[in-house]
Amino acid sequence: MEKARFIAGKPGIVEFAPMPLIIYYLTALLAMTFLYRAFEIPYRNHMATALAAGTGLRAIPPP
Fold first, then answer.
1. 3-class SS of residue 59
2. Is residue 48 domain-resident?
């Protein structure tokens, strides 16, 4: 509980924490979109792969 108060008391940490994940998702989705358009893969398969990639990150337990 003490760690939670410490982190919540530092808004800079809370605002910065999701940034790497947001950058990763945007980069991955843009890269997959361009690659799939280049290889002419259907939109349905593209979204299935994007969803599976994002869901896979949640399967990794936090340290």
1. coil
2. yes
Query: 3-state class of 31 per DSSP?
Result: helix
In which domain, by residue range, is 13 found?
2-58
CA–CA dist 41, 33 (Å, integer): 9
Neighbours of 50 (CB within 10 A): 16
Alpha-helical segments (H) within 2-41? 2-8, 11-16, 19-38
pTM over 0.70: no
Q: pLDDT tens, 48-60?
A: 777 777 666 565 5
- Three-state DSSP state, 1: coil
Instruction: Report the C-alpha gap between 13 and 36 in whole angstroms.
Output: 36
Q: Is residue 46 within 8 Å of 36, Cβ to Cβ?
A: yes
Contact 36, 50 (CB under 8 A): no
